[in-house]
Amino acid sequence: MNISRSKLIAIITGFISILICIVYLLLITVFDFRTFLNNQITSYSENMAEVFVEILFRS
Prior knowledge:
Elements: H1 5-58
């Protein structure tokens, strides 16, 4: 199998670009999931405060 130098560089560059795309998509997914978790934690603590105040006034 005789591959010229330019074809080898093109193949290596293609693999590197695909690898960069996959890493980018993984990073975007992780950061997007963190935003979802932060919103859930924030809304959960707000609901807990409302429940606490409601229980406090009923006692």
